[in-house]
Design goal:
With 142 residues, the protein is α+β, with helices and mostly antiparallel strands. The chain is built from 5 helices and 4 strands. 45% of the residues lie in helices and 13% in strands. The strands form 2 sheets. A two-stranded antiparallel sheet has the order 1-2. It is extended. The protein starts with a helix and ends with a helix.
């Protein structure tokens, strides 16, 4: 998200939160960037790669600048980040890794976090079915 869009989002957030006496989580894009840069993530280093548009560039009219620009993407290795989070004693017993589905009185699926989503549920159910099939076929062979 661009710096200007972040600033606009924080203005919208501030005007909405003002009705309830709440402040936005960041003042503007500079405050967000400072917070990100000050966040300690253990020993996970920043990494980057460059990318650019590789498809056909129009020969007529104005070519958008993003089509010819090189873009640098900065990131931390997500696997190492999750490893650090899960190994942090402050999070002990704070993360439920069990997939679940919750419905309201009108039978609408309520989504709260990753483990309440369909992806986690389908994978857990699929794995459970496979385990049952394998164990039941093993029993018959005995």
């Amino acid at each position: 998200m661009s710096a200007g869009n972040i600033d606009q989002l924080m203005k919208i957030w501030a005007s909405h939160g003002a009705e309830h006496g709440e402040k936005p989580p960041f003042l503007d894009h500079n405050n967000l960037y400072e917070t990100i840069d000050a966040t300690t993530i253990g020993d996970v280093p920043w990494q980057s790669f460059d990318t650019s548009y590789l498809d056909e560039i129009p020969q007529q009219g104005n070519v958008p600048p993003w089509m010819t620009a090189k873009h640098t993407v900065w990131f931390h290795d997500p696997r190492l980040l999750v490893h650090n989070i899960l190994s942090n004693p402050d999070f002990k017993d704070m993360f439920d890794a069990s997939p679940y589905q919750e419905y309201d009185a009108k039978n609408n699926h309520r989504y709260h976090d990753f483990m309440s989503g369909n992806w986690a549920w389908r994978h857990a159910v699929c794995l459970r079915v496979i385990c049952v099939l394998i164990s039941s076929s093993s029993i018959r062979r005995i």
